[in-house]
Amino acid sequence: xxxxxxxxxxxxxxxxxxxxxxxxxxxxxxxxxxxxxxxxxxxxxxxxxxxxxxxxxxxxxxxxxxxxxxxxxxxxxxxxxxxxxxxxxxxxxxxxxxxxxxxxxxxxxxxxxxxxxxxxxxxxxxxxxxxxxxxxxxxxxxxxxxxxxxxxxxxxxxxxxxxx
Length: 164
Description:
This protein is mainly α. It has helices at about 5-35, 65-85, 95-110, 110-115, 115-125, 125-135, 145-160; strands at about 35-40, 50, 55, 140, 145. The protein has a 3-stranded antiparallel beta sheet with strand order 1-2-3. Strands 4-5 form a two-stranded antiparallel ribbon.
């Protein structure tokens, strides 16, 4: 049975630690912008949503949640999106930038992030330009939403905080 080398394991552990740390930091950006609501609702574009922006086939309108269930959903969703975008990111980036992109992917979807100009700039070494791209994503359902303008400004500030 093949064994992994210690350097492979150390690299994987470091990568996982970066994702988990960024997810923890992203939660502090996600929660205030999503809000935490104990009853499932439709988001601004009509998607059934629970707690702090959780979506999925298991969400039924009117379903109720405890605060702990909402926090568990949020933590799991932040880690999930962090792991998904990690597959697309090809270079080391500061924790704050990773957290900002995790929050962004939580909102628009990991697939959208992985196809974005922000990711192309990040992987080309233009992290400042990648952070600036966040400000362009302020529309939902074809119209600009003030909440998305505020959210992207917060994500951009977090993204740029790691730059020197």
